[in-house]
UniProtKB/TrEMBL annotation:
Source organism of the structure: Lujinxingia sediminis
Keywords, alphabetical: Signal
Region described as Disordered: 241-262
Signal peptide bounds: 1-22
Keyword Signal assigned: yes
Entry-linked SUPFAM superfamilies: Quinoprotein alcohol dehydrogenase-like (SSF50998)
InterPro entries: Quinoprotein_ADH-like_sf, WD40/YVTN_repeat-like_dom_sf
Amino-acid biosynthesis keyword on record: no
Protein name in UniProt: PQQ-binding-like beta-propeller repeat protein
Ranges in a coiled coil: none
Amino acid sequence: MKFNIWALAALGALMITTGCEGEEPAPDPIVEHGELRLERVFPTDTHPGQEFESCVFASPMHYHDGAQDWVLAMTGEGQLAAHDVATGEVAWSVELPAPEGEGVFALAQPAWLDDSRLVVAYHTVPADHEAPYDANVQRLSHRVVVVDLAQRAISSEFEPLTLEATLPANDDATLSFRPERALSRGDVVIGRPAGATLGRAYITLGNTRDIQPWHGWAFEIDLDAWADQGAGEAIHAVFNTTPEPDENCGPEGTSGSRERRCGGGLWAPTGPLLVEEEGGGYHLIVGAGNGQLNLDRQDYANTLLRLGPGLSFEPMCDAEACADFNPDAPSLECVESCQDLFIPRLLAGQAPPRPADGRCTDEMTLFECWQEMDYIGGSTPARVELGEGAVLVYPTKDGHAYLVDAEHMGTMHDRHKLVDLCGTADDACRKTWAGMAVTQPLIMTTEEGPLALIPTFMPDSTHAAGVVALAIVDTEDGPRFERRWEFPTFDKAEAITRFREHPGRVVAAPLKEGGEPVAWLVEVGDPGATGRLIALDPLTGEALFDADLAGRGQRYTWPLRVDDRIFVSSCPSDRAASRLEGYQLVPVD
């Protein structure tokens, strides 16, 4: 089916910017484009909505209680607040529980168990720590609860669950899950294996600032056992990406972000990719961040892994080809042999990165340079059905998109540069650890084939960044990327002033009921500035709407569309007051 976006001509835009935190909201911005106008509903002088003391790190969620619609915002301090869609006022809320003397810190996007229940993963922190909390506050425990929105309470069917685990490790040691060295940022996802009623929830964790010892952890929660037998039987399986004993991870309490020791955090904000299989099965694809890669020791940092139900994993690599594995320069014969493991690499003729600040010398291999730059993982791939097969589109912190065979993950079809490396000799990269892409692509289907929309960002003042659209095309030599458009167009001046911060995620939603979907996202503003709510024509990259938010927006989150309204999370900073913002699409008279 071809997208048939109406022939919209820009009739002009009056975009009114508001001030910083603490100032009164400005009047409604009105942005017109063709048949529709985008108006701010709240916060305005008439409808200020609700300001929270802490940041709203999660995306807004839509809940219909049988009588009316609510938009939910989960604050960093653990309040699930139900907003009136017309005014933004909070009518009711549910507080996440914590043991006495502990506070709540919530980052991860909850998962819908059914139409009225949410599975929520969060941390507890010292209650005497100065609020609002951020990711660097000590984590005391990691908890999971089920919220019953119909009852407006924590579900009595599921007692609160605390994540705990001890696994076998290398060198005949054991490895215990340490809550102070883990952070749950990724979306919770739910899979339903055959015979399950409720299914299994998956919680993935990395750490903040890569403080050692840290690892990538995944927990599988059997929701049926949890409901029937209690929290003691809920943890069904646990997986660790780098099973090294703590003493192998470097000095306790120091940063390992520029090392390849332990690590492999599963910190992608978009969480695991859950792929449903024919016959009712499923598997997960998880992206492990920086750290130690050594197949001889079952260490899988900087890779994509396919995990089965029960978090079972076997890379399915050729043992002979991978013998005496070289972590600095894995052999092509080895990495191409792996069925359930993808190890990123260069295409023939491509040169390893050489950042302008000189961190990588000419003698360094690709993996040695990635170590110095704190690249490569942090995103979630998207799966694309292509003919009789499928591929994974995987954007990474190094500013590239990788095209990976979904059935045999050792096969890499393409590696496409999305943006340049951050920084120049005269313009230092402001966030050398951040990379240029942390997201999950949005895949849109057109008559010409699938199109991957990938938001990028650039913490310098020299290089272009924004949304990049890549077509996935079949050629005689296999699937390949073809660049279709950028927003803003990279040869325009605004492309080196916009998208300087981590942006939100791209989602598809129509401009009006029954229309073809367009691409919506939030461009997060620079510190002290406002962000923008953007709608793009997926075929051309034309901005259908490009309007100032009241606030800055929030990285990693997506806009939510409910009928003719769009809702976004917005935080001036991770430790500042925040709010939900609401906008409305109305016909032009």
